[in-house]
Each structure stands twice: as structure tokens, then as C-alpha cells.
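Appendix B. Extra example for self-study. Work through it before the problem class; the solution is given directly after the inputs so you can check yourself.
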Amino acid sequence: MTATEAAPSSATGEVSGAEIRLEDVTKVYPGQKAPAVDGISLTIPAGEIAMFVGPSGCGKTTTLKMINRLIEPSSGTIVIGDQDVRKRGVDELRRTIGYVIQGGSLFPHMTVAKNIAIVPKLLGWDDDRIVKRVDELLDLVSLDPSRYRDRYPRELSGGQQQRVGVARGLAADPPVILMDEPFGAVDPITRQRLQDELLSIQRELRKTIVCVTHDIDEAIKMGDRILILQEQAHIAQYDTPDVILGSPANEFVADFVGAGSSLKQLSLARISEVELRSATTARIGERTAEVAQRAQANGDLAVVVLDDRDRPRGWPWLRQLKGETIVEPTEDLVNLDSRATLNDALDTMLSNGHGGAVVTGDRDAYLGVVDFVAVTDHMRDMQARANQSAAEAGSETGGTRIARSDDEIDHGTDLAGTDG
Amino acid sequence: MAETRPSKRVAAKRSGLGAGAAIELLGIPIIVLVGFAAYAWWHSVADLDFVEKSSLAWGDVWLQIWQHVRLTLVASAIVVAVAVPLGILLTRPRTKFLAPGVVGVANGGQAAPAIGLLVLLFLWLNGDLSGFWTAILALALYGILPVLRNTITGLQGVDPTLVEAGRGIGLSGRAVLFRIELPLAIPVIMAGIRTALILVVGTASLASFINAGGLGGVLTAGITLYRYPVMVAGAVLVALLALLVEWVGRVLELIARPKGI
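Solution. C-alpha cells for the complete assembly:
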């Protein structure tokens, strides 16, 4: 098996999202003098992911909730597509806007299928169509419909609940999806997985997604655009991740993005850009002796065990291979999606003993192995390129840029601290 | 993908009842049956004088049990019909400021001695209502508090993010109430209803003072005629009935609890 480079851009679907436009939107809560949101204006292009970040209390969630009128703006206009949200009935409006909340916020007394079916039912879809749609969505979020559709939320793990939450948000195929810290309540490995999945779903669906997060790394990874807000939702910067990392507009943005901003570039680069190594693979049921021979010929000390659908199931060392034939591994192998970032890759590598990680592509199929050396080489290239373009940009803008050190990237010891 | 594997721990929890609850659910009707059989046996073999015999005649006792049950059920039905909607009203955004006041009044009603409430109402309403309906009114006033309080507590206990999630995906306020808030509050509301049932079945023993019937009649006869066996028989019958009603309350709680919570 040879290492293949995934080409995610070739799989993009047609834009099904709608543009969102905020014009001078202000929110003053009753009894408060200072507005929570003070005259924000911005445009989120159709089919893009806009990440709202900022310190707590900066008005990012208020801004989000004004889009579906969970909070009514005091003044200003919000337009989705070409319709003013205030011209539509509030319930009818919300049925056309997906809403995904931290932890999924599933209704505990309804099964997974019922949770997902709420909005389609409100829209009067017929039963057959709803059943089909529920299964389709469960598939989309990587949950086996026959196994999960009749479960109650408490029978699911946090990550699974969050997946169902995403499925519920997508249920009626809304052009716009609002997400409020969607992955805040799950562990880092699951979060990375969910982020990758959402990106892959988005590549297919091309919705307009507005997502509030407090995690700048998440914003950099997920966002086509990042909106960094200061107090009262004053826009500090609204631009692509590249630009925000490369030329922060002011001190506030530079501080917020963090001192190790060149390390943050790790969140911009994807595994698919790195050259993968092909490792020795084995099938469940193969003769152990043959596999060991093959591995030794390749100079490998471990083999990747694949199941009948090419999915990696384990990565045992040769000395762990006992018995006549390869048995189904019992370990919990954490694979890396080809869409994961280098940041994710380093996390995963540090959590296993192989100094590398198994990379999977569509439908979790094995692609190859990425190791530490490949990632650091790639980072060095990136750094060289970034320095070059920074030098050019710096001479243009006259030097409001923050200083960065070339050394930052070369010290492997710094890397463990990048996910904080 | 580790987290998509089903959790065995959770799957085991699905089977529902704990051992303790199962024992109570099966145990109470057995106790009541055994108790009643013992009473019937005692009644048939005991050496009773004429007064005792006529006080404990089966025909009269059955009638009183029926009256007692009817008082309990009608009063409890009225309690539910009044207290649950009132509790809902007192948790709505526009009217919730009234909640402390109403709960305070209901608290006061509960604190007033039941016999006083009953007699006062009887004197006050004398002639306007029959003894039965006066007793019903007093019992209902008495039983409202636990249901009202639990309806309010239950609804307030619903995770506000779930309510917001419901509104956020396009359910109307009414739909959120009936499809999310009430189902999630049901366990707490039902606990209140069970408490009310027990309160009402006990207090209904006093209804005989105002001619509304019930097993209180046997007790009072025993006391006024100074017939010890009659007194004890009345007490035993009331206790058995109360146990049975408490059991019905538990069964209702179990049936009404939505799956998944």
C-alpha cells in the first residue's frame, strides 16, 4: 500500500448556505446603560464558516442569538439571504436556522430519532421522509442508525450526544446553522474528531455556519473567517485565519491569538499536506509468521492491523503478536483523519508510543502513517515560507506586526504546550 | 473510534427498577391483603357485643370505605385540576412574580389544623353545600399545597438550556411547555400528587364530623361509645386504606414517568 495524498478540495459540494448580513446591530439589555452589543456590522458570505471568538462577556453569544432572535436586537437589521429576520414569524424563522448547542442539549425523554425529527415534524414532513432523513443524518455523523436511533440520550457518550445535536441542527436542511460552543463539553480527542467530521460534512453541504467558541485553536482550524470581538462586540478583526495569524490588526488581537502565534500555524496545516509513510499492514486472520516476515523486510517494528473494510483497528508491536494468526486487536487505536491539523497530529503522536499516528481518509479507511520527522520537516518548510511572506508583508504595512522568533518552531520541546 | 462503542454500564441501567422500589411495590399490596384478611378473621371470631356488632356490620363498613375512597378521589382530582395549571401559570415568565405569594398562602392553608378548616367551612357554608361537598372543599384546600409546590419546583428544575434549545429550534412556547417542560417535570409533580393523596386520605377521616361519611365514622363511634375494639378496628381500616392509596400513588408515579429520564 502506498501513501496517498487526500485531495479534499475535489470533493466540495455546491453552496447550499445563505449570506448573513448584520447592519449596525445593537443590543441594550433593559436596566443596563452600556450596550452589550454596540452597532456591529458584518457580512458572512454564503457557504462559509465564521468563527466568533473573544473574551467572555464580549457579546459574541448575544450576537449569535440575535441572528435567530433568541435575543431581539434593540436596533439595526439582520438579513439572511435577502430577508430581514424581523419580517418573519419567530418560530417559522427558527425552523429554517439550525441551532447546535454545547453538549447537544438533547431532550432526555425523547429517543435519538425523535430528537432529530422534531423540526421536520414541525415542518409537516410525512413519516417516511422523516424516517429516511433521520437515518441519513445518523450516517452523516458516523452513528450506525440501526444501533442508535432508538436510544435515549443518557445511553450515549458525550461525543455521541454532540453528534446527535449536530444531526438535529441539520435535520431540516437549513441554509444557516448557528453553533454555540458546540464542542466545549467533550474531551480533546473527541473534540478533534468532531471538528474533523464537521469540516468533512461542511465540505459536502456548504452551509453558512456561525460558530461561537472560546478556543482560538478551534477558530483557526474550523473558520473560513474569524471574527475577534472586544468588549461590547466591537470588531477587533474579521478576516481569514491566515491574515489574523500573519498580521494581527492590533495589540488586542495579537494578545488574544497568543504569543506562540507561529505555532498556531500548526492549526492551519492539515495532515493531508504532509507526506505519509506506508507501514506494514496486516489483515485479521492472516498468519502471524508471514506478517512478521513482511514487517522485518520493511524494517518495521509494528504492524497496522486492518479490518475487512480497510479500517485500522490496532497497531501492535511485533513482539506483541502471539498465536498462529492475527486476532482482532482490543486496543483503542486513535486514528488521525487526513483533515486533522498538525496540532492534532502532534497531540495524537504524543499519546501513543509509536512516535507517529495512523492516518485515515474517507469512511475511516487506512491511508498511511505519519511520523514525527515528517511533521517537523513540514513545519520547517512552512516556517520558511511564512518568514518569506512576512518579510514582504512587513515592508508593505510598515511594521505593526508582532515579532516572532525563528527558534520557536525548531524546538520539539515546545510542542507539547501548543494545545492549551 | 472509542466513543461510539455502547456503554455496558448504561445499558444495564435501562432495566429500570431498583430492588428497593420493587419490594415496596409488591410488598405494600401484600401487607394490605394480609392485614385485611386478619381483620376479617378477627371480625368473624371475636366475641362482640350488640353495639360493637352493629358498628362493625359489614354493610356499613363497606359503605364507609366507599365514601372514604370517593372523598379521597374526588378531592384529589380537584387538587390536580387546580394545582397543576396554577403551578404552570406561576412559572410562566409574565406571571412568575406571583409565585412566592401564592405558595405562601398555600403554606398557610396547610398549616391550619384540618379539623378547624373543616368545621369552619361547614359553619360558614352551612346550607349552601352538602356535607360531602364541604368536606371535598376542605380536603382539596388541604391537598393543594404539595402539588402546587412540586409543580413549581418540577418546572423550575427543568434545565433552562433545554428550554432555550426547544425555542431555538423553532418550538413555540406552548409546544416547549407540553413537549419538554411538563414531561421532564412529571416525576416531581407525581411525587407531589402522591403526597397529596396520602394527606387527603388521612384527613378524610375527619369528614364524618360534618356528616360527609367515611371511615372516620367507625373511629368516632368507637370513641363516643367507649368501645375499644371498634376504635382499633376503625384505626386499622383507615391505616390499610391509606397504605393502599399510597401504593396507588407509587404505581401512578411509575406509569407516568417518561422513558429515558
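Self-check: Chain B touches chain A through 30 residues (CB under 8 Å). If your reasoning did not lead you there, revisit section 3.
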